[in-house]
């Protein structure tokens, strides 16, 4: 009886270990992709408008830097 | 002997010029050479342009400054009331004021539009032509508050007489739509979408019939919405539009009728609704690049009166 319980316990422990290994790999990918999406969102939030300005200032015909700030 | 000569023309036929044989040839439809249909999301665009102008309440001032013909900056000020959705029949209005800075880069192959408000919200739109027929569009609203940002990627493919689109959005939203020209005037389309987090999916069908003078569209979706619209171009300057929408889930029926006058110095759009709403929107061109805007929306049922005025400077 004790041996059956202990063997059941061992099987459960073995399954538990294997399950946590698989879920840790899946969890690792999900956490990494969530981290990447969060960083991408911050980069896009701060950098999108400067990106448009840089691309625009380098397009032909090149506008002057003063034209960026003056209201004329 | 040759074929007998046709009988001499009688009555009116003798006065009018004879019909050419070529006219009959042009009427024959070439089913392999149909025109490309409008994109699926623009299937009701004539009706939307006439019946849903951007009505606002308060003051609006937009200034667009072009630095070169592709790149421009825009400054926009708004002071007025914004309506909050409320459960009861009362309207909740919150006075708001904001300044919005925007930058636009418009190239035939790449279009970048970004707008940022004083509270940190960013509206970004990117349209990029990857090849001649494949276009990628990105639409995003990013906010400082967590979990409130939204984004959508669209991939559009334009074929000879069809268009297909695939959409991926946040909250695991996937959608696809397809529209095909069936005759030179009729195009049929359908769309499917799947919402991952709520495990909801839907399918819809749409049809659009247009000639030079009129456009009729119909849309039906599994979310229980039926939408029909009809636009008639009465003359070069005037078009009339009407619209019908039925929501099966909320048993809501709305029908509206509107007019759109495009004159030399102004554009006047007005509409009358079955909910007791009368609205009008006037854009008057005062000078080259200076437009004066008046907006009015009177809701007789809820006793809500909204009036707005503004000016737009720049192209």
From TrEMBL, chain A:
Task: Determine if Protein transport is one of this entry's keywords.
Answer: yes
GO cellular component terms, A-Z: mitochondrial outer membrane translocase complex
Q: Where is this region: Disordered?
A: 1-26
Family that this chain belongs to: Belongs to the Tom7 family.
According to its record, how does it sit in the membrane?
Answer: Single-pass membrane protein
Question: Quick one: which gene encodes this?
Answer: LOC109717477
Q: A Pfam family name for this chain?
A: Tom7
Name of the protein:
Mitochondrial import receptor subunit TOM7-1-like
Top-level division of the source organism's lineage: Eukaryota
Q: Where in the cell is it found?
A: Mitochondrion outer membrane
GO terms under biological process: protein import into mitochondrial matrix
What keywords sit in the KW lines?
Membrane, Mitochondrion, Mitochondrion outer membrane, Protein transport, Transmembrane, Transmembrane helix, Transport
Automatic annotation (TrEMBL), chain B:
In this chain, the stretch annotated as Disordered covers: 1-27
The UniProt GO MF terms for this protein read: porin activity; protein transmembrane transporter activity
Places the protein is found: Mitochondrion outer membrane
Task: Supply the alphabetized keyword list.
Answer: Acetylation, Ion transport, Membrane, Mitochondrion, Mitochondrion outer membrane, Porin, Protein transport, Receptor, Transmembrane, Transmembrane beta strand, Transport
In the bilayer, the protein is annotated as:
Multi-pass membrane protein
GO CC terms in record? mitochondrial outer membrane; pore complex
User: Some GO term, biological process aspect, for this entry: which one?
Assistant: monoatomic ion transport
Q: Which Pfam families match?
A: Porin_3
The organism's superkingdom is given as Eukaryota
Q: What is its main location?
A: mitochondrion
User: What ranges does the record list as Pro residues composition bias?
Assistant: 1-10
The entry sums up its family as follows: Belongs to the Tom40 family.
Functional summary from the UniProt entry: Central component of the receptor complex responsible for the recognition and translocation of cytosolically synthesized mitochondrial preproteins. Together with TOM22 functions as the transit peptide receptor at the surface of the mitochondrion outer membrane and facilitates the movement of preproteins into the translocation pore. Directly involved in the pore formation.
Q: What is this protein called?
A: Mitochondrial import receptor subunit TOM40-1
